[in-house]
């Protein structure tokens, strides 16, 4: 833990007291989104101290030229920047002819932020004393509409406390923005058109290179004591990329003045005429009105929470943590558009670039399958199917593979590889396995096999072809090996025979071959269509099987463990507990050379294999490997604590499971890795959900049935969650004395509780 200023609360993220040192961290933590767009919790008014300005639109990116010391074949052509979008939230404010700026006020008191996760809004309030002696109270509420997802709403209220005040509001929209990660302050937006109305304005701009067109808009209303006073702007200032209106008003001491600002984006991904679309959005929002839009927001979030909430009784910090994670996941992706995906920072920052990593398949799909309609998870699978041709091009053009072998990108926006580190781009190839596993996991959970003959089998064939060609035969070992890889532990590069990579390569080939046979017997028309399309023969499948059947797995018979890679035991095996705390995190304190030679593990690697393929190994094997590898794991990836929490729970190491759960659930709230100001770790938040449902709840799907083996941390009085399993809603409630299963509807559901079949109807209680 590196920070502890967020107040414990069951439903809200709360900060009290103004501290300039916390501004950038809070901008991340209080971010809001609605699946289509999002923004950091930047102040609407001027703030002259350090800040990280960021607003983002789903699917919009810039292909920044990859720069290396020298070019080599296979390097990705560009790095996909997540673009800071034009600013619509800005409102410069003058009070008695002095600019409001919390950095220059003589006093700021009663400062408070609240992110209300239950209702989906962000609120900031404070009292300030300006240099001219005017004292004011400010309350600002902002939300991004879930129903009208191209619009956001701000209500900015000012109450003079010690004298009457002349208040000048200067709302603006500005496309002259740069990225926090811009190399030379370069701009990525080309202004196209500015349009001004009576109280509304529009700036249309497009991205350089990719030519995404975006109209950024605003509509302003000036209020006195919550009544529209029908003020028109006194002046309108505009440039090629910015429009700013000026509204002057006088308000008596103790009375409340406000500006109500509607803003947002319409994009060419969805509209041929973005300006006309923006005008329609404003009309719809104005007709609804602020109160109705807010009420609709509250109701929309209530529907989301009805299915996705996890309750924890007796541990407020744990409760706050899981709800923060669930809230951010739903702000980032709602499953409405199969062209979109779940970026690792969501709408909270720019780090990493791209919108899609293997995190989606390995961590996020289970959450979306269980808390939403199965179509949402199917959309995520369809996203990869739609990019299969790009994956085949990637393997062919960058690696020299042939015959339809597919390597999915490590990072992508549109199916092309856009990660610019060779040891990741070329070598962290296990991501192919996660994509294949997600297809299996989707079918296993939903029972919907139709996706495989319709789309999934082509993906599985491309991936199997990749593994067949990527493996090589070792005469010395008389087995197939996979050389020059990076496993999930990115603190080892260019190593040979990463256990997880080799294991999932074998599994992918075996699974693809099984599905080809199954589709052949049950969907003969699809089987014929697909095999003709990809020119697959029985002889080629047999060649795949040779690789799978004779795959090499590094082991230590002495220790009774699988080796993370061939040379792991050659390292100086000093456990993490003996590492000086001043050296942590090692990725910020050590040279990369030293990190790569160390035994320290960034995240679950061998244990990732045990997580995916738990039934393939005995409990004793899990325990030996867990005890060995956890002792060297520094958990400097957000994806690490959740897997360890789940496996610690399996092994009845409940204190450890609870500690890991707190770390994954409060990773950003408590800033464990000293980087939250760069944005939140969105995709790993799905792992927090897994830590409770799969870890403490012990939920598994075996032989088309749900299995539960629930456990409860001693710190909790009880917990509960809901899942949508094959269109049946099951609620599971656990306390120290009993487990309760409740099924919505009249249809019974057979589950397995601690190894024993149970028929769950309306209500089943088990001691």
Automatic annotation (TrEMBL):
Keyword flag Secreted: no
Ligand binding (substrate): 358-359, 602-603
InterPro entries cross-referenced by the UniProt entry: 6-hairpin_glycosidase_sf, 6hp_glycosidase-like_sf, Gal_mutarotase_sf_dom, GH65_N, Glyco_hydro_65_C, Glyco_hydro_65_M, Glyco_hydro_65_N, Malt_Pase/Glycosyl_Hdrlase
One Pfam family recorded for the sequence: Glyco_hydro_65C
Domain of life: Bacteria
Glycoside hydrolase family 65 N-terminal domain residues: 14-268
Membrane-crossing segments per the record: none
Domain Glycoside hydrolase family 65 C-terminal span(s) in chain numbering: 699-758
MF terms in GO: carbohydrate binding; glycosyltransferase activity; hydrolase activity, hydrolyzing O-glycosyl compounds
Coiled-coil segments on the chain, per record: none
NCBIfam families: PRK13807.1
Protein name: Glycoside hydrolase family 65 protein
Organism: Flavobacterium fluviale
């Amino acid at each position: 833990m590196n920070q502890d200023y967020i107040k414990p609360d069951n439903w809200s993220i709360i900060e009290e007291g103004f501290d300039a040192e916390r501004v950038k961290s809070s901008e991340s933590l209080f971010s809001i989104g609605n699946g289509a767009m999002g923004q950091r919790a930047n102040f609407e008014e001027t703030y002259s101290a350090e800040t990280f300005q960021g607003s983002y639109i789903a699917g919009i990116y810039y292909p920044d030229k990859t720069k290396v010391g020298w070019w080599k074949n296979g390097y990705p052509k560009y790095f996909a920047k997540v673009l800071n979008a034009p600013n619509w939230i800005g409102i410069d404010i003058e009070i008695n002819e002095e600019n409001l700026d919390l950095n220059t006020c003589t006093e700021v008191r009663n400062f408070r932020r609240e992110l209300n996760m239950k209702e989906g809004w962000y609120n900031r309030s404070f009292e300030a004393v300006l240099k001219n002696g005017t004292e004011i109270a400010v309350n600002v509420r902002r939300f991004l509409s879930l129903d009208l997802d191209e619009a956001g709403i701000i209500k900015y209220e000012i109450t003079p406390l010690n004298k009457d005040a002349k208040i000048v509001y200067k709302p603006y929209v500005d496309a002259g923005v740069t990225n926090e990660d811009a190399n030379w302050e370069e701009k990525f937006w080309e202004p196209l058109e500015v349009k001004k109305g009576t109280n509304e304005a529009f700036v249309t701009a497009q991205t350089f290179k990719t030519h995404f067109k975006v109209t950024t808009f605003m509509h302003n209303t000036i209020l006195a004591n919550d009544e529209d006073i029908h003020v028109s702007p006194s002046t309108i200032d505009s440039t090629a990329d910015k429009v700013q209106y000026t509204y002057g008003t006088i308000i008596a001491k103790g009375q409340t003045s406000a500006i109500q600002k509607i803003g947002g984006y319409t994009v060419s991904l969805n509209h041929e005429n973005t300006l006309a679309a923006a005008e329609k959005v404003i009309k719809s929002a104005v007709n609804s009105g602020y109160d109705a839009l807010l009420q609709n927001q509250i109701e929309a979030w209530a529907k989301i929470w009805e299915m996705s909430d996890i309750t924890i009784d007796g541990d407020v910090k744990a409760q706050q943590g899981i709800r923060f994670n669930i809230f951010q996941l739903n702000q980032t992706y709602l499953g409405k558009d199969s062209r979109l995906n779940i970026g690792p920072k969501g709408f909270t920052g720019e780090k990493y670039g791209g919108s899609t990593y293997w995190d989606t398949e390995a961590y996020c799909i289970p959450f979306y399958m269980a808390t939403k309609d199965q179509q949402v998870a199917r959309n995520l699978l369809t996203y990869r199917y739609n990019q299969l041709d790009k994956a085949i091009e990637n393997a062919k053009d960058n690696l020299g593979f042939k015959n339809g072998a597919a390597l999915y990108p490590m990072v992508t926006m549109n199916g092309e590889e856009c990660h610019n580190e060779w040891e990741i781009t070329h070598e962290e190839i296990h991501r192919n396995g996660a994509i294949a596993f997600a297809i299996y996991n989707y079918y296993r959970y939903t029972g919907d096999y139709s996706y495989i003959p319709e789309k999934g089998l082509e993906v599985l064939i491309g991936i199997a072809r990749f593994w067949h060609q990527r493996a090589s035969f070792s005469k010395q070992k008389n087995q197939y090996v996979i050389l020059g890889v990076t496993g999930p532990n990115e603190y080892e590069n260019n190593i040979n025979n990463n256990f997880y990579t080799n294991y999932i390569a074998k599994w992918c080939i075996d699974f693809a071959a099984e599905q080809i046979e199954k589709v052949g017997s049950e969907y003969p028309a699809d089987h014929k269509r697909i095999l003709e399309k990809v020119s697959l023969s029985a002889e080629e499948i047999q060649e795949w099987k040779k690789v799978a059947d004779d795959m090499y797995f590094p082991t230590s018979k002495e220790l009774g463990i699988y080796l993370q890679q061939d040379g792991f035991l050659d390292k100086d095996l000093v456990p993490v507990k003996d590492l000086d705390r001043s050296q942590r995190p090692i990725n910020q304190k050590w040279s990369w050379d030293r990190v790569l030679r160390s035994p320290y593990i960034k995240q679950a690697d061998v244990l990732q294999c045990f997580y995916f393929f738990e039934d393939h190994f005995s409990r004793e094997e899990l325990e030996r490997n867990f005890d060995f590898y956890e002792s060297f794991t520094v958990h400097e990836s957000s994806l690490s604590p959740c897997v360890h929490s789940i496996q610690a729970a399996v092994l009845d190491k409940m204190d450890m499971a609870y500690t890991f759960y707190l770390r994954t659930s409060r990773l950003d709230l408590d800033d464990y890795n000293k980087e939250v100001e760069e944005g939140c770790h969105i995709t790993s938040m799905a792992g927090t959900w897994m830590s409770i449902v799969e870890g403490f709840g012990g939920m598994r799907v075996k032989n088309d049935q749900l299995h539960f083996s629930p456990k409860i941390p001693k710190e909790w009085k009880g917990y509960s969650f809901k899942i949508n399993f094959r269109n049946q809603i099951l609620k599971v409630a656990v306390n120290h004395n009993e487990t309760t299963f409740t099924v919505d509807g009249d249809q019974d559901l057979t589950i397995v509780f601690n190894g024993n079949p149970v028929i769950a109807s309306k209500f089943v209680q088990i001691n």
